[in-house]
Specification:
Layout (H helix, E strand, L loop, with lengths): L3 E5 L17 E5 L4 H6 L1 H4 L15 H4 L13 H6 L9 H7 L1
Amino acid sequence: SGGSLLIFDPNVTHLKKHIQSKSNPGLKLNLSTHRRLVHRFPGQFIPYQDIFGCNIKAENISDLLYKGTLIRLPFRTSDEARESQISEKYFNTDRIKQLA
């Protein structure tokens, strides 16, 4: 939203070295001050490109500001679900296709 990107890791398994407390399991990045991350980790940011006009590649900060909220929900594997403290449900290829 705006110039920020929120990343949640509720089980603190993927971002553990960046999360200071399990009671606050996420990061808020100001994309105007963290532009290098967009170039360094394109796989994390490219899924937002051109979704409802989002321009994650914008070099001009005013073009980067997004007037809305996009939510990306990654699907967990069966191994991740087994280890999860939230839910044991997982999505394989067949279950993902059923959603469409």
